[in-house]
Amino acid sequence: MTRIIADISVSLDGFVTGPDPDLDNGLGTGGEALHTWAFSDDPEDRRVLRETTARSGAVVLGRHLFDVVDGPNGWDDTTGYGAGEVGKPAFVVVTSSPPESVRLTELDWTFVTTGLPDAVTAARERAEAASSDSGMDLDVVLMGGGATIASALDAGLVNVLSLHLAPVVLGAGTPLFTGGAPRTLVQRSATSTSTATHLTYDVL
Description:
The chain is of the alpha/beta class. It has helices at 43-54, 63-69, 116-134, 146-154; strands at 4-10, 56-62, 90-94, 109-112, 139-144, 160-165, 185-192, 197-203. Strands 4-3-2-5-1-6-8-7 form an eight-stranded mixed sheet, sandwiched between helices. The protein is globular.
């Protein structure tokens, strides 16, 4: 069964970027500390990263995040999604209009202009096709940004919330939660390392 998993790193005070994020510095001031765990040598951090990318049949992201990762200072062979891990999944971008060009042409991009629910549906179809090809149960991963994940939670589109809680207080930035519909969560796992506490919740 294909699950919809929202997966994002967050500070202790609830921010998914630091202050003043822009296309040249998508994580904002101090925001790099949120993702220290993803570059850690800790065996548990490596396991979480490996398992997260291995289960990704398709990945959904918002247009702003796409502009950051596809920009000149964005992803490369060492910092892209699952870099150094498994093969790359399909990527589905929620946007009002497709970009004129794409820098990362080696990746499989789909641009959906009819809203987040349709983007999740398109990603589910890609994940199910990848599951059939691989013989594994693969999921849809919502990687952000924060507004995309919050909107998906509010719309009841998310089955699992996976948070990587970084030991940092940013003071300002892009908040993950800004109100919206209440949701009941059931904690399924918690793994602590020196760089993060990895938390997994079922969303009821």
